Amino acid sequence: MKRLAALLPIIFLIAMLSAAYAQSLAELANKEKERRQEIKDESKVITNAEAAKYRSSPAATASVPAETDPEAEAEEGEKEDGMETEASSEQPQPDEPVDFQGRPESFWRKTMAEARKRVKDLENEANVLVLKQNDLQNQFYREDDGFKREWIGREIQKTFFEQDQNKENLAKAKDALQDLEKEARKSGALPGWISAKNP
User: Fold this and answer.
1) Using a CB cutoff of 8 Å and minimum separation of 24, what contacts does 162-167 make?
2) 15-61 tens-digit pLDDT
3) Alpha helix (H) ranges present in 2-143?
4) Which pLDDT belongs to residue 173?
5) CA distance 11 to 9
6) What count of Cα atoms within 13 Å lies in the side-chain half-sphere of residue 82?
7) How do residues 53-97 score in pLDDT, each as one tens digit?
8) 3-state DSSP helix/strand/coil percent for the chain, to nearest 5?
9) How far is CA 117 from CA 85, 112, 153, 170, in A?
10) What does the alpha-carbon distance between residue 100 and residue 157 come to, in Å, rounded to a whole number?
11) What is the distance between the alpha carbons of residues 83 and 80, in angstroms, rounded to a whole number?
12) Taking a C-beta distance cutoff of 8 angstroms, is the pair 129, 164 a contact?
């Protein structure tokens, strides 16, 4: 009887926690339902004219291709080739200097700026992750509740994983920036085109 009386507060606590957990799951399910509804409402139809700007990256589809007329496919292919050349070939301004490959100064300035921004964003993300990890570790050592400490511990592990991913992405971004600089020099781009300073 004494054991049962000692276990009653624990049983009550487990019941309360399971009720709170079930309530939080219900809230999450409702939020997910609302999010999916918003996605359906915001769907957009892309026309052939707009599709040219999305052609740079291949799209993976799981649908089975429908049978089509070979002549219609040939005509469509010619149209797509024409749109690709129009979209991909950025013609330089008449007075704008170009490198040996015919790429204008504006191309190099824009490409290098985007590569530098990618590196800077990843460096900022690394700093944020360090601060987040330090904050979580402080919370872990201040917390007395075992359940909360377990949750904080999982968040700390997640942060370690995110830091590893960030390191890999940052290394790749820095390598890509160096490769771009080498390619620009080989193709005859002037130093001012690839420098970090704007004119």
Assistant:
1) 162/129, 163/126, 163/129, 163/130, 163/133, 166/122, 166/125, 166/126, 166/129, 167/126
2) 665 665 555 667 777 877 787 777 665 556 666 666 666 555 444 44
3) 2-41, 48-51, 70-88, 105-142
4) 93
5) 5
6) 8
7) 655 544 444 444 444 455 555 555 555 444 444 334 455 566 778
8) 75, 0, 25
9) 28, 8, 33, 11
10) 50
11) 5
12) no
Q: What is the mean pLDDT of the chain?
A: 74
**Domain ranges for the chain:** 104-199
- What tokens appear for 98 in the block? 């170009």
Please tell me the total number of residues recorded for the chain in this structure: 199
* C-alpha distances in Å from residue 143, one per residue of 21, 136, 148: 20, 10, 7
In which residue are the tokens 């490409």 written?
111
